[in-house]
Amino acid sequence: MRDFADRIAVITGGGTGMGRELARQLVAEGCNVAICDVSATAMAETKRLCEVERLPQGLRITTHLADVSDEEQMRRFRDEVAEQQETDKIHLLFNNAGIGGGGSMFTNSREQWEKTFNICWGGVYLGTRLFLPMLLQADEGHIVNTSSVNGFWASIGPNTPHTAYSAAKFAVKGFSEALMCDLRLNAPHIKCSVVMPGHIGTAIVSNSRKIQNGIDTDSLSPEEIAGARRRLDAGGIDTSPMTDDDIQAMARERARSFLEEAPTTAAAAARIILDGVKTERWRILVGDDAHRLDELVRATPEQAYDTSFYQSFAAEVGWKLG
After folding, report:
1. Distance from C-alpha of 277 to C-alpha of 288, rounded to nearest angstrom
2. DSSP 3-state assignment of 217?
3. Are 116 and 171 in contact (CB under 8 A)?
4. Angstrom distance (rounded) from CA 242 to CA 88
5. Residue 163 near residue 113, CB atoms below 8 Å
6. How many Å apart are CA 3 and CA 62, to the nearest integer?
7. Residues forming a β-bridge with 157
8. Which of the chain's ends, N or C, has fewer CB atoms near its CB within 10 Å?
9. What is the widest separation between alpha-carbon atoms in the chain?
10. pTM surpassing 0.90?
Protein backbone atom coordinates (compact mmCIF):
# COMPACT_ATOMS: atom_id res chain seq x y z
CA MET A 1 0.00 0.00 0.00
CA ARG A 2 2.11 2.86 -1.32
CA ASP A 3 -0.24 5.67 -0.31
CA PHE A 4 -3.25 6.14 1.94
CA ALA A 5 -5.39 8.57 -0.04
CA ASP A 6 -9.06 7.56 -0.21
CA ARG A 7 -8.40 4.55 2.03
CA ILE A 8 -10.26 3.79 5.27
CA ALA A 9 -8.26 3.23 8.47
CA VAL A 10 -9.45 1.95 11.85
CA ILE A 11 -7.35 2.89 14.88
CA THR A 12 -7.91 1.63 18.43
CA GLY A 13 -6.66 3.82 21.26
CA GLY A 14 -6.94 6.87 19.02
CA GLY A 15 -7.54 9.38 21.81
CA THR A 16 -3.91 10.03 22.73
CA GLY A 17 -0.32 9.10 22.00
CA MET A 18 0.62 7.11 18.93
CA GLY A 19 -3.04 6.49 18.05
CA ARG A 20 -3.70 10.22 17.87
CA GLU A 21 -0.60 10.83 15.78
CA LEU A 22 -1.44 7.98 13.40
CA ALA A 23 -4.86 9.56 12.88
CA ARG A 24 -3.40 13.00 12.24
CA GLN A 25 -0.83 11.79 9.74
CA LEU A 26 -3.25 9.51 7.91
CA VAL A 27 -5.81 12.30 7.57
CA ALA A 28 -3.06 14.59 6.25
CA GLU A 29 -2.51 12.04 3.49
CA GLY A 30 -6.20 11.96 2.58
CA CYS A 31 -7.18 8.81 4.46
CA ASN A 32 -10.59 8.37 6.09
CA VAL A 33 -10.16 7.48 9.76
CA ALA A 34 -12.31 5.83 12.42
CA ILE A 35 -10.91 5.85 15.96
CA CYS A 36 -12.07 4.27 19.18
CA ASP A 37 -11.09 5.04 22.75
CA VAL A 38 -12.58 4.93 26.25
CA SER A 39 -12.37 8.73 26.51
CA ALA A 40 -14.77 10.85 24.46
CA THR A 41 -12.88 13.98 25.52
CA ALA A 42 -9.57 12.64 24.24
CA MET A 43 -11.10 11.57 20.94
CA ALA A 44 -12.71 14.98 20.49
CA GLU A 45 -9.26 16.56 20.81
CA THR A 46 -7.81 14.11 18.29
CA LYS A 47 -10.59 14.99 15.85
CA ARG A 48 -10.05 18.72 16.43
CA LEU A 49 -6.34 18.37 15.71
CA CYS A 50 -7.10 16.40 12.54
CA GLU A 51 -9.42 19.15 11.38
CA VAL A 52 -7.04 22.07 12.06
CA GLU A 53 -6.05 21.96 8.42
CA ARG A 54 -8.94 22.14 5.99
CA LEU A 55 -9.95 18.60 5.10
CA PRO A 56 -10.54 17.43 1.54
CA GLN A 57 -14.22 17.41 0.69
CA GLY A 58 -15.90 14.19 1.77
CA LEU A 59 -13.08 12.96 4.04
CA ARG A 60 -14.52 11.28 7.13
CA ILE A 61 -13.16 11.27 10.70
CA THR A 62 -15.41 9.33 13.06
CA THR A 63 -15.02 8.70 16.79
CA HIS A 64 -16.42 5.74 18.71
CA LEU A 65 -16.50 4.94 22.43
CA ALA A 66 -15.30 1.38 22.98
CA ASP A 67 -13.29 -0.72 25.42
CA VAL A 68 -11.22 -2.98 23.17
CA SER A 69 -11.33 -5.82 25.71
CA ASP A 70 -15.14 -5.98 25.52
CA GLU A 71 -16.42 -7.97 22.53
CA GLU A 72 -19.89 -6.43 22.60
CA GLN A 73 -18.44 -2.92 22.51
CA MET A 74 -16.03 -3.89 19.74
CA ARG A 75 -18.88 -5.34 17.67
CA ARG A 76 -20.74 -2.07 18.11
CA PHE A 77 -17.61 -0.17 17.08
CA ARG A 78 -17.32 -2.24 13.90
CA ASP A 79 -21.00 -1.73 13.06
CA GLU A 80 -20.72 2.04 13.68
CA VAL A 81 -17.70 2.21 11.39
CA ALA A 82 -19.65 0.51 8.61
CA GLU A 83 -22.59 2.87 9.10
CA GLN A 84 -20.79 6.17 9.65
CA GLN A 85 -18.06 5.60 7.09
CA GLU A 86 -20.71 4.26 4.70
CA THR A 87 -18.64 1.22 3.79
CA ASP A 88 -18.48 -2.56 3.90
CA LYS A 89 -14.67 -2.55 3.81
CA ILE A 90 -11.59 -1.07 5.46
CA HIS A 91 -8.00 -1.03 4.24
CA LEU A 92 -5.95 -0.41 7.39
CA LEU A 93 -6.41 -1.77 10.91
CA PHE A 94 -4.17 -0.38 13.66
CA ASN A 95 -4.62 -2.48 16.82
CA ASN A 96 -2.89 0.14 18.92
CA ALA A 97 -4.75 0.45 22.26
CA GLY A 98 -2.83 -0.47 25.40
CA ILE A 99 -2.32 0.26 29.08
CA GLY A 100 0.23 -0.66 31.72
CA GLY A 101 -0.26 -1.83 35.29
CA GLY A 102 -0.87 -5.12 37.04
CA GLY A 103 2.82 -5.88 36.84
CA SER A 104 3.11 -8.26 39.78
CA MET A 105 1.47 -11.61 40.41
CA PHE A 106 1.97 -10.91 44.13
CA THR A 107 1.30 -7.26 44.89
CA ASN A 108 -1.30 -6.48 42.22
CA SER A 109 -4.82 -7.87 42.15
CA ARG A 110 -5.98 -10.41 39.61
CA GLU A 111 -8.40 -7.77 38.28
CA GLN A 112 -5.57 -5.30 37.62
CA TRP A 113 -3.45 -7.98 35.96
CA GLU A 114 -6.22 -9.21 33.70
CA LYS A 115 -7.35 -5.70 32.75
CA THR A 116 -3.89 -4.95 31.35
CA PHE A 117 -3.63 -8.32 29.61
CA ASN A 118 -7.15 -8.21 28.19
CA ILE A 119 -6.67 -4.72 26.72
CA CYS A 120 -3.14 -5.19 25.39
CA TRP A 121 -3.66 -8.68 23.99
CA GLY A 122 -7.44 -9.12 23.89
CA GLY A 123 -7.88 -5.85 22.02
CA VAL A 124 -5.55 -7.04 19.26
CA TYR A 125 -7.33 -10.38 18.99
CA LEU A 126 -10.84 -8.89 18.96
CA GLY A 127 -9.86 -6.10 16.59
CA THR A 128 -8.43 -8.59 14.12
CA ARG A 129 -11.24 -11.12 14.51
CA LEU A 130 -14.07 -8.61 14.14
CA PHE A 131 -12.66 -6.36 11.40
CA LEU A 132 -11.19 -9.16 9.28
CA PRO A 133 -14.39 -9.56 7.16
CA MET A 134 -14.18 -5.86 6.25
CA LEU A 135 -10.50 -6.20 5.35
CA LEU A 136 -11.37 -9.15 3.13
CA GLN A 137 -13.72 -6.92 1.15
CA ALA A 138 -10.94 -4.47 0.25
CA ASP A 139 -8.66 -4.74 -2.77
CA GLU A 140 -5.69 -4.64 -0.37
CA GLY A 141 -5.35 -4.39 3.37
CA HIS A 142 -2.83 -4.14 6.17
CA ILE A 143 -3.11 -5.13 9.85
CA VAL A 144 -0.71 -3.29 12.16
CA ASN A 145 -0.43 -4.73 15.68
CA THR A 146 1.34 -2.75 18.39
CA SER A 147 3.56 -4.95 20.52
CA SER A 148 6.58 -3.45 22.31
CA VAL A 149 10.21 -4.06 23.09
CA ASN A 150 8.53 -5.88 25.97
CA GLY A 151 7.39 -8.35 23.33
CA PHE A 152 10.96 -9.68 23.16
CA TRP A 153 12.36 -8.49 26.52
CA ALA A 154 10.01 -8.80 29.49
CA SER A 155 11.38 -6.11 31.76
CA ILE A 156 11.65 -2.39 32.42
CA GLY A 157 14.28 -2.88 35.14
CA PRO A 158 15.22 -5.30 37.90
CA ASN A 159 13.15 -3.58 40.60
CA THR A 160 9.85 -3.33 38.70
CA PRO A 161 7.74 -6.45 38.00
CA HIS A 162 6.16 -6.20 34.56
CA THR A 163 4.36 -9.49 33.97
CA ALA A 164 0.93 -8.53 32.60
CA TYR A 165 2.10 -6.05 29.97
CA SER A 166 5.03 -8.21 28.90
CA ALA A 167 2.92 -11.36 28.63
CA ALA A 168 0.41 -9.48 26.47
CA LYS A 169 3.06 -7.97 24.22
CA PHE A 170 4.77 -11.34 23.72
CA ALA A 171 1.34 -12.69 22.70
CA VAL A 172 0.85 -9.84 20.22
CA LYS A 173 4.24 -10.49 18.65
CA GLY A 174 3.69 -14.24 18.34
CA PHE A 175 0.17 -13.83 17.01
CA SER A 176 1.28 -11.31 14.39
CA GLU A 177 4.11 -13.50 13.14
CA ALA A 178 1.82 -16.53 12.91
CA LEU A 179 -0.91 -14.45 11.27
CA MET A 180 1.41 -13.60 8.38
CA CYS A 181 1.41 -17.24 7.29
CA ASP A 182 -2.35 -17.54 7.78
CA LEU A 183 -2.92 -14.47 5.61
CA ARG A 184 -0.50 -15.63 2.93
CA LEU A 185 -2.46 -18.86 2.57
CA ASN A 186 -5.99 -17.53 2.94
CA ALA A 187 -5.99 -13.79 2.21
CA PRO A 188 -2.80 -12.88 0.34
CA HIS A 189 -4.01 -9.34 -0.38
CA ILE A 190 -3.78 -8.54 3.37
CA LYS A 191 -0.39 -7.87 4.97
CA CYS A 192 0.49 -7.84 8.66
CA SER A 193 3.10 -5.91 10.64
CA VAL A 194 4.10 -6.06 14.28
CA VAL A 195 5.28 -2.78 15.83
CA MET A 196 7.79 -2.85 18.68
CA PRO A 197 8.35 0.61 20.13
CA GLY A 198 10.91 1.50 22.75
CA HIS A 199 10.26 4.44 25.09
CA ILE A 200 7.80 6.69 23.25
CA GLY A 201 6.58 9.98 24.70
CA THR A 202 2.94 9.22 25.50
CA ALA A 203 0.55 9.63 28.43
CA ILE A 204 0.38 5.86 29.05
CA VAL A 205 1.59 6.23 32.65
CA SER A 206 -1.19 8.58 33.72
CA ASN A 207 -3.82 7.03 31.45
CA SER A 208 -3.11 3.53 32.76
CA ARG A 209 -3.62 4.68 36.34
CA LYS A 210 -6.97 6.18 35.48
CA ILE A 211 -8.22 3.18 33.53
CA GLN A 212 -7.00 0.67 36.11
CA ASN A 213 -8.77 2.53 38.91
CA GLY A 214 -11.81 3.81 37.04
CA ILE A 215 -11.05 7.43 37.89
CA ASP A 216 -10.35 10.67 36.03
CA THR A 217 -8.03 12.49 38.40
CA ASP A 218 -4.27 12.92 38.54
CA SER A 219 -4.26 12.70 42.35
CA LEU A 220 -3.36 9.37 43.94
CA SER A 221 -5.87 7.77 46.30
CA PRO A 222 -4.75 6.72 49.82
CA GLU A 223 -4.59 3.12 48.57
CA GLU A 224 -2.40 4.13 45.63
CA ILE A 225 -0.08 6.09 47.92
CA ALA A 226 0.29 3.08 50.18
CA GLY A 227 1.01 0.87 47.17
CA ALA A 228 3.60 3.33 45.88
CA ARG A 229 5.33 3.29 49.25
CA ARG A 230 5.48 -0.52 49.19
CA ARG A 231 6.98 -0.56 45.70
CA LEU A 232 9.55 2.11 46.55
CA ASP A 233 10.53 0.37 49.78
CA ALA A 234 10.90 -2.94 47.92
CA GLY A 235 13.16 -1.17 45.45
CA GLY A 236 15.47 0.00 48.23
CA ILE A 237 14.08 3.53 48.70
CA ASP A 238 13.19 4.40 52.29
CA THR A 239 9.85 6.22 52.16
CA SER A 240 9.48 6.76 55.92
CA PRO A 241 10.70 10.40 55.73
CA MET A 242 8.36 11.11 52.78
CA THR A 243 4.96 12.73 53.19
CA ASP A 244 1.97 11.73 51.13
CA ASP A 245 2.48 14.94 49.15
CA ASP A 246 6.03 13.80 48.38
CA ILE A 247 4.67 10.53 46.96
CA GLN A 248 2.10 12.47 44.92
CA ALA A 249 4.85 14.69 43.53
CA MET A 250 6.97 11.66 42.57
CA ALA A 251 4.04 10.13 40.69
CA ARG A 252 3.37 13.36 38.80
CA GLU A 253 7.03 13.70 37.90
CA ARG A 254 7.20 10.12 36.64
CA ALA A 255 4.22 10.68 34.33
CA ARG A 256 5.65 14.02 33.14
CA SER A 257 9.14 12.71 32.44
CA PHE A 258 7.81 9.63 30.61
CA LEU A 259 5.84 11.91 28.29
CA GLU A 260 8.21 14.84 27.88
CA GLU A 261 11.69 13.29 28.12
CA ALA A 262 11.24 10.24 25.91
CA PRO A 263 13.85 9.73 23.19
CA THR A 264 11.12 9.34 20.54
CA THR A 265 7.96 11.43 20.24
CA ALA A 266 4.58 9.92 19.42
CA ALA A 267 4.57 11.86 16.14
CA ALA A 268 7.95 10.44 15.13
CA ALA A 269 6.79 6.96 16.10
CA ALA A 270 3.68 7.27 13.93
CA ARG A 271 5.78 8.34 10.94
CA ILE A 272 8.08 5.32 11.37
CA ILE A 273 5.05 3.02 11.54
CA LEU A 274 3.39 4.46 8.45
CA ASP A 275 6.64 4.36 6.50
CA GLY A 276 6.95 0.71 7.52
CA VAL A 277 3.46 -0.02 6.20
CA LYS A 278 4.25 1.65 2.87
CA THR A 279 7.40 -0.45 2.46
CA GLU A 280 5.62 -3.62 3.66
CA ARG A 281 7.98 -4.25 6.55
CA TRP A 282 6.50 -6.91 8.80
CA ARG A 283 8.77 -6.07 11.76
CA ILE A 284 8.81 -2.40 12.72
CA LEU A 285 11.15 -1.39 15.52
CA VAL A 286 10.49 2.17 16.72
CA GLY A 287 13.29 4.22 18.25
CA ASP A 288 17.04 3.88 18.52
CA ASP A 289 16.57 2.32 21.97
CA ALA A 290 14.38 -0.43 20.47
CA HIS A 291 16.99 -1.22 17.81
CA ARG A 292 19.80 -1.32 20.37
CA LEU A 293 17.86 -3.47 22.84
CA ASP A 294 16.99 -5.91 20.06
CA GLU A 295 20.69 -6.24 19.22
CA LEU A 296 21.71 -6.78 22.85
CA VAL A 297 19.04 -9.36 23.65
CA ARG A 298 19.88 -11.35 20.52
CA ALA A 299 23.60 -11.19 21.31
CA THR A 300 23.37 -12.31 24.95
CA PRO A 301 19.93 -13.83 25.66
CA GLU A 302 21.08 -15.69 28.76
CA GLN A 303 22.21 -12.43 30.38
CA ALA A 304 19.18 -10.37 29.28
CA TYR A 305 17.61 -10.33 32.75
CA ASP A 306 20.75 -9.76 34.78
CA THR A 307 20.88 -6.48 36.68
CA SER A 308 24.13 -5.59 34.93
CA PHE A 309 22.47 -6.00 31.50
CA TYR A 310 19.77 -3.47 32.36
CA GLN A 311 22.19 -1.04 33.99
CA SER A 312 24.51 -1.08 30.99
CA PHE A 313 21.65 -0.69 28.49
CA ALA A 314 19.91 2.04 30.49
CA ALA A 315 23.14 4.02 30.80
CA GLU A 316 23.79 3.68 27.05
CA VAL A 317 20.36 4.86 25.88
CA GLY A 318 19.33 7.04 28.82
CA TRP A 319 16.43 4.94 30.11
CA LYS A 320 15.04 5.84 33.55
CA LEU A 321 12.02 3.54 33.59
CA GLY A 322 12.58 0.96 36.28
Report:
1. 19
2. coil
3. no
4. 57
5. yes
6. 21
7. none
8. C
9. 63
10. yes
